[in-house]
Amino acid sequence: DESFLSAMNGWMIPIIGSLFAQEAISRFLGAKSASTARNAGFVAAGLYFVVAFIPALIGMIVSNMDLNIAYDDSFLPTVAEQMLPPALFVIFIGALISAILSTVDSTLLAVAALVTRNIIEPVIPAATDRQRLAIARVVTGIAGVVAHYVATRGDSIYSLVEASSAWGTAGVAVIVLIGLWSGFGGPRAALTSLLAGVAGTIVFGAYYEDAAFLLSLLVAAVAFVAVALFEKRQVVQPA
Question: What is the three-class DSSP state of 190?
Answer without folding.
Answer: helix
